[in-house]
């Protein structure tokens, strides 16, 4: 059983400006974001981490680098871990743009995988397919913990959909701050969430409702 640790990148310059930023290379980390990244090795000191993989955007690579270096591990990148694409909303920061961006992501979580961000080339099926491929490649042959440095909406959508013990609205109702963490255990096709930014969950087998009640 693999322990999969999904980490949102540190604060970026686009986060500071509240801009939707999904294109490569993306904005760099802010000063706070660099500090958040530097704290990750100590934060994960008790984990038996075998691999660290990042999305190719500048902010995720810079977030994962201190952890990979501290562990003496390489830092491969996988485009499948990129953020949900912003399409026509790229680099907009107004409220309407943010709502238009999140609406299809929330609809994916509710089962409407045909929804897509305006102007985006991918719908929910495309997103899940590329993220699934990235996760499967990252965990192949692993027996300990694997850390994936990725993005807020992408982590919320993928983990909210793929974790069998989470209620359907979990990813919609709970955001993820910079360097926020979601932890799943299991294997491709059989993931269960154990933690969402400090919130812990009972195993589905121990929960008669099957809803993944917070522990």
From TrEMBL:
SUPFAM superfamilies, sorted: Phosphoglycerate mutase-like
Source superkingdom: Bacteria
Cross-referenced Gene3D superfamilies: Phosphoglycerate mutase-like
SMART domains: PGAM
Matches recorded under Pfam families: His_Phos_1
Name the record gives this protein: Histidine phosphatase family protein
């Amino acid at each position: 059983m693999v322990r999969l640790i999904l980490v949102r990148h540190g604060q970026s310059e686009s986060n500071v400006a509240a801009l939707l930023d999904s294109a490569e290379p993306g904005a760099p980390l802010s000063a706070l974001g660099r500090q958040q990244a530097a704290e990750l090795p100590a934060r994960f000191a008790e984990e038996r981490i075998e691999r660290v993989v990042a999305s190719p955007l500048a902010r995720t690579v810079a977030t994962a680098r201190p952890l990979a270096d501290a562990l003496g591990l390489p830092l491969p990148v996988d485009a499948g871990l990129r953020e949900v694409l912003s399409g026509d909303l790229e680099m907009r920061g107004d409220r309407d743009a943010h709502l238009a961006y999140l609406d299809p992501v929330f609809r994916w979580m509710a089962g409407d995988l045909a929804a897509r961000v305006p102007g985006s080339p991918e719908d929910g099926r495309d997103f899940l397919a590329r993220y699934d491929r990235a996760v499967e490649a990252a965990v192949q042959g692993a027996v300990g913990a694997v850390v994936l440095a990725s993005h807020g909406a992408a982590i919320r959508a993928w983990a909210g959909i793929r974790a069998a013990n989470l209620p359907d609205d979990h990813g919609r109702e709970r955001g993820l701050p910079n360097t926020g963490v979601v932890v799943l255990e299991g294997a491709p096709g059989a993931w269960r969430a154990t933690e969402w930014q400090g919130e812990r969950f009972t195993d589905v087998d121990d929960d008669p409702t099957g809803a993944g009640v917070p522990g």
